[in-house]
């Protein structure tokens, strides 16, 4: 799919735009970097990457992160590190889209976004199929996305 926000080669899934800017092939599997633009209020369900560390580098917008029950906010110029095996999610809390880099070590998970975009699968309607595909990438969904109704305060 063509994405006018990130240029040729970008994909879109559930309103989020992704473009892999450093491929697993280019790093012999060591890592990948995907640029992502997420609309206000968006964020994935809680999940665990069993075999990859994930680093978010915030470029624009503000996001609230949830990592093993702890909440914290990150904005432009800040990073969030999620070690492999840890339950996490995030939600865009600014009025503008959040643009960030997602660095995965080792690489490979960026292919998950491509499969989701190709199938245009929806959450929550298609969760059984999404979970099946996610298992190929050592990803397990563990709970719902964060919402503005959650009572926990940002730390």
Automatic annotation (TrEMBL):
Superkingdom in the source lineage: Bacteria
Domain (Cupin type-2) ranges: 39-103
Organism, scientific name: Oceanomicrobium pacificus
Entry protein name: Cupin domain-containing protein
Matching Gene3D superfamilies: Jelly Rolls (2.60.120.10)
Pfam families: Cupin_2 (PF07883)
């Amino acid at each position: 799919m063509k994405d006018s926000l990130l240029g040729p080669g970008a994909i879109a899934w559930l309103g989020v735009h992704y473009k892999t800017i450093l491929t697993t092939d280019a790093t012999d599997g060591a890592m990948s970097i995907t640029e992502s633009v997420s609309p206000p209020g968006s964020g994935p369900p809680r999940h665990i990457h069993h075999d990859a560390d994930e680093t978010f580098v915030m470029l624009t917008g503000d996001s609230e992160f949830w990592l093993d029950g702890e909440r914290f906010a990150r904005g432009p110029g800040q990073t969030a590190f999620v070690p492999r095996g840890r339950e996490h999610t995030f939600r865009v809390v600014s009025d503008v889209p959040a643009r960030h880099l997602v660095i995965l070590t080792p690489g490979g998970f960026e292919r998950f976004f491509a499969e989701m975009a190709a199938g245009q699968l929806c959450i929550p309607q298609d969760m059984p199929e999404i979970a099946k595909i996610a298992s190929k990438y050592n990803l397990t969904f563990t709970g719902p996305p964060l919402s503005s109704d959650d009572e926990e305060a940002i730390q």
